[in-house]
Design goal:
Bound molecules: flavin mononucleotide
Radius of gyration: 19 Å
Order of helices and strands: EHEEEHEEHEHEHHEHE
Cofactor: [4Fe-4S] cluster
Protein name: Ferredoxin
CATH superfamily of the largest domain: Flavodoxin domain
Function: Ferredoxins are iron-sulfur proteins that transfer electrons in a wide variety of metabolic reactions.
Largest sheet: 6 strands, mixed
Strand order of the largest sheet: 2-1-4-6-7-10
Strand content: 15-25%
Keywords: 4Fe-4S, Iron, Iron-sulfur, Metal-binding
Structural class: alpha/beta
InterPro entries: 4Fe4S_Fe-S-bd, 4Fe4S_Fe_S_CS, EFR1-like, Flavodoxin/NO_synth, Flavoprotein-like_sf, PSI_iron-sulfur_center
Helix content: 25-40%
């Protein structure tokens, strides 16, 4: 198969999914220049995108509660393929990815894409940073590079996009129910009102006039405002953080390896 253009598409509030998607897409693209489509920012009127059968899409989303984040799902629904091969990527914080990769595959098939390969990559947990700390690490990066090489080979030997065999992706249908986390972000007096959090919130949950006010019904607890605040003024409560860390201890402590499906 001759691929004319490779586009990395990602939803990545705290940047690790972007990093993983770029790593893999750039290595598949090799000497070609990859294009990028960032679905993270809130844009008032998001255009539709359509990819053709000679292109390759590399799509990355983080795992939230074993699922594709609803915001990412909504935004992917504006992206169409015409039997376009796609590489699916989920990133997760060393707990589990559960139904997320299967769900991502289902969403993109519905949008006209043909899954060619898939990966579930472990990252530092962006709520409980003590888990998956420093991931993806050197071992993960080596494996992601080998995966990109294998994808290139696979596509080279695929006569036409119609010939891609079904991938064997773990997960269940119906997908597990997504339970929102009871997280509340507080703002300390260190906030100088610079407005980065207002501009970068993926769902415009922070008041345009007062960054100390967050609409908790709109907030998706993605941790982006906490990660981006230059004054470190936005925080999760210490007790909540400790409780989450404790709750995740049993399921997050052992190292999980990235998984690659071809
Ligand atoms: C709301 C929320 C739910 C999460 N749920 C899971 C999960 O079910 N399993 C897991 O291993 N990590 C989970 N994580 C960790 C993220 O999947 C991980 O940190 C991800 O790489 C973040 O991607 P980003 O940096 O692109 O935003 C969750 C994080 C958030 C913010």
């Amino acid at each position: 198969m001759n691929i004319s253009q490779i586009t990395g598409i990602f939803f990545s509030p705290t940047g690790t999914t972007k990093q993983v998607t770029e790593w893999i897409a750039e290595r598949i693209a090799a000497d070609k220049e990859a294009g990028w489509l960032d679905l993270t920012d809130a844009i008032s009127s998001r255009p539709d995108y359509t990819f053709n059968e000679h292109e390759l899409a590399v799509v990355g989303v983080p795992v939230y509660g074993g699922r594709v984040p609803e915001t990412a799902r909504e935004r992917l629904k504006k992206i169409y393929g015409k039997r376009t091969p796609v590489v699916l990527i989920v990133t997760y914080g060393n707990r589990a990815y559960e139904d997320a990769l299967l769900e991502l595959s289902d969403i993109l098939k519905e949008q006209g894409f043909l899954p060619a390969a898939a990966a579930a990559v472990v990252t530092e947990h962006n709520i409980a940073h003590v888990y998956g700390t420093g991931r993806p690490d050197e071992k993960d990066k080596k494996e992601m590079t080998a995966f990109a090489e294998a994808v290139k080979e696979k596509l080279k030997h695929t006569a036409g996009s119609t010939k891609l065999p079904e991938l064997s992706i773990k997960g269940n249908r119906p997908y597990r129910l997504y339970a929102t986390l009871p997280l509340k972000i507080s703002v300390t007096s260190a906030c100088e009102g610079c407005g980065i959090c207002i501009r970068k919130c993926p769902v415009q949950a922070i008041s345009r006039t007062d960054p100390k006010v967050t609409d908790e019904t709109a907030c998706i607890t993605c941790m982006r405002c906490i990660a981006l605040c230059p004054k470190h003024a936005r925080k999760l409560g210490t007790l909540v953080t400790l409780a989450i860390r404790q709750k995740l201890k049993r399921v997050c402590t052992d190292r999980k390896d990235a998984e690659f499906i071809l």
